[in-house]
Amino acid sequence: MPAGDATLMVDRDSYVAPEPPERRARKDVPGALSGSRLFDQPAHRATADAVRAFLEPPGPVAVEIGFDHGITLLSQARAHPDWRWLGFEIRRRRVQAVQAHAPPNCLPVRGDARTFLAAVLPDACVDRLDILFPTPSLKARHLLFTPELVADAWRVLRPDGVVHIKTDVPDLARLVDQLFADARPALAPPAAPERSRRERVCARDGLPVWTRAFRRPEGQPSSMNMDDGSAR
Ligand SMILES: C[S@@+](CC[C@H](N)C(=O)[O-])C[C@H]1O[C@@H](n2cnc3c(N)ncnc32)[C@H](O)[C@@H]1O
Fold first, then answer.
1. pTM of the predicted structure, to 2 decimals
2. Which of the residues 64, 124, 144, 199 has the least number of beta carbons within 10 Å of its own beta carbon?
């Protein structure tokens, strides 16, 4: 599974992201939960159908990848009942705990976000895609930030949709800037009423946080901004 306890021990300052693995086919994503062929199986097809049904009605949609304890996902869904909030998390117990508290406009789903983005979400159905403090994965096959994820993000986002990323890992910020170099800079969308667990740790310990927000490319370079406004 992409996020084992080992990743919690990673030294964030010296972490270097592995080279992304080569993807064999558009809808065959390497990663947790057997990749996107998973959705050929009846039990998992039901989850995919539930996601598609959740996305079907008109209105704004946000997706959060790696919601963990669901602090930001649930607080956003409660604060913005006019939006639908779809979350992906691979840790079963976390998902079950969050599902128990989810309001009707929130769908916490267990699964690898990469497979859902590649194989389940329709084109142009998402207004904001949040990736908050992603795991600094040591294994290439667990890496979230790859060219394929970027391509899938642009596919599922509506024309004015925004990718919103926060990380306290310098090399993940570097990788994001490299992968989104062609994207247009955007204003970060409204923050959740409650900070995520990792964001609380960063605030408590005074750790630098890199925030990025992008719209689909139109030949403009991406912006660089840090929460404290300083360059690094
Ligand atoms: C470092 S934690 C951060 C959690 C939370 N967003 C925060 O800010 O505190 C990253 C989370 O992403 C989840 N995760 C990692 N790779 C994932 C993937 N491919 N799809 C869905 N969730 C993933 C992990 O299980 C973990 O809960």
1. 0.88
2. 124
